[in-house]
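the three lines:
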Amino acid sequence: MKNSTAMLAIFLALTATGSAGGTPATTKAAVAPAAAAAASSARGDFGPPQGEPIHAVLTSPPNVPPPVNRNYPAKVIVELGVVEKEMPISEGVTYTFWTFGGTVPGSFIRIRQGDTVEFHLKNDPNNKMPHNIDLHGVTGPGGGAASSFTAPGHESQFTFKALNQGLYVYHCATAPVGMHVGNGMYGLLLVEPPEGFSPVDHEYYVMQGDFYTTGKYREKGHQPFDMENAIAEKPTYVVFNGAEGSLTGDKAMAAKTHETIRMFVGNGGPNLVSSFHVIGEIFDKVRYEGGTHEQENVQTTLIPAGGAVMVEFHTDVPGSYVLVDHSIFRAFNKGALAILKVDGPEDKLVYSGKEVDSVYLGDRSGPNLEAVTAATKAAQSGNLTLQEQVKAGEALFTGTCSVCHQATGQGLPNVFPPLAKSDYLAADPKRAIGILLHGLTGKVTVNGSEFNSVMPPMNQLNDDEVANILTYVLNSWGNPGGRISAQDVTQVRAAPAAATSKSEH
Amino acid sequence: MIRAMVAALCLAALALPAGAADYVAIPGGSFASVLPPDGKAALAVVAPFHLRMLPVTNAEFLQFVRANPQWDRGRIASLFADSQYLAQWGGPSNLGAAGRDQPVTRVSWFAAEAFCESEHARLPAWYEFEYAAAADESHADARADAAWRERILDWYARPSTTALPDVGSSPKNFYGAHDVHGLIWEWVGDYASLMISGDNRNQGDPDLLKFCGAGALSTQDRENYAILMRIALLSSLKAADTTANLGFRCARNATGDGT
Amino acid sequence: MKRLGTIVLMIATLALGDAAMAAPALPGGTLPGDSVYQLDIPLTNQDARASKLAELRGSPVLIAMFYTSCKYVCPLIVDSMRSVDKALAPDERARLRVVLVSFDPEHDTPQALKAVAEERHLDLPRWSLDRTDAESVRKLAAVLGVQYRAIEKGDFNHSTVISLLDKDGRIVAHSSRTGEVDADLLAATRRELTTR
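prediction for all of em together
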């Protein structure tokens, strides 16, 4: 109650001073505050529409209509058509999308809180399906869905007042709803607060969606919708703005350095929640869930399915900033990435780019691996002694094997088998070569205990190293001794994987 | 005596008019409909009936319009059809570029009913259509078959920008009827009584003041969305509406009379 | 023989084709294309008097559909129509016809209709309760936008629609409201009653 009175007071003040920005000729207050409050749903009813009806300017993604720039409630006429059309969803892959306004997501609608919207929904005569619309910003049954159910070749009309400000999803709600939404029937409705937003350099419109096809990811040709996958929530594609690559390359969003960007980001679902993140940027302001309050300094924000968010950030340095769903396999294996390309002069103080590129030897650079270097030299000259092998093997063991088998070769009870006094090793020393090369899964019994773990293949070791490690192990902790040569290892490597040791993927 | 003969001839002639369309016999039965009669789980019962083997074609409808000019698109009352009625024809009583054997579309419920009356038939009831439509080529009830569902959905997923093929292009189903799926939507006599809300989420939301009896019927098996979508389309229509993908075929009671 | 049959058939077809739908030639000028009276259906009222729907042409009509054994909504429909009727001035009221047509011709005989008319003290003959054949019920419902369905035990599920027809039978207003006077419907009715 208080808020609307305050609003009305501001409005009256503005009208009285004759401020620019589309004030109507009459300066009479729209309606007496008490009556308005009583008849309306609390905060957002600023009375009946004033002035001439306005035909809403709708835009296709990623563009956004200009700010409303009005300080009185008006009647806004929105005409939105539904078109079923075949479009690419990925390179060489087409899909029959059901669209609002011919695009996925559908046209962006921008109005002001308190506006009265006369909504016309038209269903293209070439369409097969009936469609309707549920706008999350509508207070009323079905969000408009029951009043807008339209057969192909027909048009429906209904009127609603936008009582609440916010960024709202709209979508088709015809049975089966999941299929209509899954085919791309969603978009965003922005109901600006009465005072509007602060100006920014660019505004963009992005909407994530998950798509379900019978074929696999990037399987070429025309792909039909797959209801089983949709029910199981196993999308084939997760993309921004209806297709992989819709906002990359020459279709990337653009900006310059030292500019402010506002993005209206929605999530049409039908199933997945988005963890929205722009790689290399931090959101200065997040109107989380598209509502009224802001969070600041946010890296990644959640967008519920059927929800939206407004993010603001400023650009400092040039480069390609990648929008992703940070459930990262969706970004790299299902297509959930988009690009904002920022041009302009570099700023090394903020981000320097790569400064030094030098060799990093890791563990190998330390003094403890001198033994390895010595053994390698000796092996090359053909004079490798058992001692040298053991010393080299010990150094390598410490970095690689002791993590699991422990420095004392004890292993971990019930988890990693012991190497110390191991009957398994003693039974067949050369078998161990295959284990290092190919890994080992499944049950083994060592010194009377059963182990059933997973040893990955040691792909990083060369033949000399395998030979040296094994020689060290065989000559330590009560093991029977012996020697494994690099040639032994080469032979085993060349042979196909032994039946007893399964390699792991 | 002569009067009796004439009457008999009349009846005989009425039963099989010259150049008559073929009807296939569909045996009666009870089945689990997506719209149970009691709104819960009762089986729908269908008496034996005859269904036209093919949808009505442009040529057949043209013949009807020529014999009944009050139904041509120049003369028809706007009460009975919207402004797109037969818009695909060249003129009120000539086809122009429209194919003779294409299914006639852009016909309203009133026009479809009138045509069926003219061949001593009627529009099929929803239950009759649903019963006949449950079949594929070799089974009376293929609704549990995912392949049957996929084929139907595939048609829904295809945009309708290409010209309609002629009737009879698809193989006949178990009962001998063609094109029950995959060609056009079809009117049923009681399309208006399917009575689910256009908004899918209001299932089981009885509004006693709006409906006597039990509240709006809800669809029983939401996963059979192939049928659901047909109901959705029919529910979106009013009797005078026409659409580019909506045609019809007629049905008769098994006794052979028109009602 | 065959030719005779064909000729008979053609005549029969023409007759049938015309019967349900042709516009009757009545005085009052050409019937508008969207007039409900384009639908030529027979009516029988509570006094067993036969007439045609189109005979209502000439004065505004409030029309709805009901059935006598309806327990829930139909009494409310009658009440709603009565509340509009009562709110009119006597001379306005005299020019308004109120018609209710039954969904259920099988059970709603003229006697059944008469019983309801008397029970509810309806102002006959300005008010009338009518029945028609099943096919005509379907067509009238289609024209008025009434949805209905026969369910078990002689009951019907049906939507509530009260339509206001102008003098020429065009639908100019309709209401789904029951239980209170529909102010919009009343205003529209008044407008129709004062137009020449």
